[in-house]
Amino acid sequence: MTSLSRWLWVVLAATLAVGCGGSGSSGGDDPPGDDTPGNGGGDDGGDPGDGEPGIASERIATVRYDLDNNGVFEGVRQFSYDTEGRLVREQYTYTDDGEQDADFVSFSLSSDDDANSVLEYSYGTDGRLESIRQTQDDGRYIDTTYDWNDDGWLNTSTQMIYSAAGALQFATQQHLEHDGSRLVKVEEYLPNEPDPESTITFFYDGSDPLPIASEDTRSKVRTDITWTGFGKPDAFARSGLNSDLTSSTDLIYDAQERLVERRFTSSINPSVNFYTWFFEYSGDQDRPSVQLIDMQSDGTIEARLEFETETAICQQVVAFLWGAESAEEPDELAPYVPGTGYVHISQCVE
């Protein structure tokens, strides 16, 4: 989970980094909640907007973080669900083990910066995600609210950052523009400002529902995207719009279409911005049971995450945009809803 000093859409990406599973697919005009064309619910849990309960499956119960790979788990994230199997709460607790945590540099994992923090999810009468509150141990909190149109597409998301005393410190709102079922633009506005503070524009090839590129005016970066034949991202190639800086992410899958390696490198400082994530699986599950962090891609594991599951009903949650990996903690495991920019907060494990 990210700290309160970062943009809230990064917070949701951090949630995805520990709570998602499943696979994407190519598709057409199906609404969010359906990642298989034309079947009304790609993960057999019903459309999150239709109020139907989930089905019995393995769902994420706990994630444990060994942030220095010394065999002691300093961080623990616990997940809670409502009676319909929807994610309603994540609580992260950090206990210092006396050793220095790894310096993750180009991304972040839950750490002592997050201390004892909580994410709480609430839903409207239609079953769609309505708000998320992130609360820090010192009482500071961020509220994110979501406004959906009648077709099931997200119109806006609004973030409000508050002090422990409840004083509003910062606010921002994202406006989403769609072309049919495809997300084409996200504009971020600050209060009382008529022009957007930043814009992410998505580009497509003909009628293909999967974006082939995005451009972000805040970071001044273009991201070119390639896809596997089974609807998951294959590689991201980033280049500065006004500079020669580059970075890339390559994703490697096994025969069961499960991500097994994520390799990142950057021209900014290859000796620092160069790392690999490894994923290990238990049986035929499509959510990893272990994630390993190799900071220099030299075979040394600096951090380890372990995922524990429980058997109970579980329902997908449609979340915010998939920002072409613009957030700090992208999760390629998240099932992408083709052509929409949406992902599922998917704690359900197949």
From TrEMBL:
**Gene3D superfamilies to which the protein is assigned, alphabetical:** RHS repeat-associated core
Q: Where is the signal peptide?
A: 1-19
Region labeled Disordered — which residues? 22-55
Per UniProt, the keywords (alphabetical) are: Signal
Write down what this protein is called. YD repeat-containing protein
| Source organism of the structure | Marinobacter xestospongiae
